[in-house]
Amino acid sequence: MIDAAGIDWGRWCFHCFTEGRRRWRNWTKRGGYGSFTGVVTYKNAEPVRAAALAQGLDRLMIETTRPT
Length: 68
Hints:
Blueprint: H1 2-5, E1 13-14, H2 21-29, E2 33-36, H3 46-55, E3 61-62
């Protein structure tokens, strides 16, 4: 859908990413960003942690649901 809409991949962020490294690698190669929640701390979230590591610290985005 992003391609069909003509949106620049470097201008979007996948909110609350919970997929694995393989899918994430495809998106980061195209320039997309992702944000990760506390889900990365769950025992069964190894695929999500792998995706966060694949994205790298220079592109890491962390989010919270805590109001300001």
